Amino acid sequence: MQTLKISLVQGDTRWHDAAANRAYYGGLVRNLKGQGSDLVILPETFLSGFTNDTLHQAEGMDGEGVRWLRALAAEVGAVVTGSVVIRDEGCNFNRLLWMRPDGQCTQYDKRHLFRMAGEHERYAMGGARPIVELHGWRVLPQVCYDLRFPVWLRNRRLESATGGMDYDLLLFVANWPEPRRHAWRMLLRARAIENLACVAAVNRVGRDGNGLDYAGDSVVLDALGQALVELGRSAQVVTVKLDPAPLLAHRERFPAWMDADDFSLGD
Question: Is 198 a catalytic residue?
Answer without folding.
Answer: no
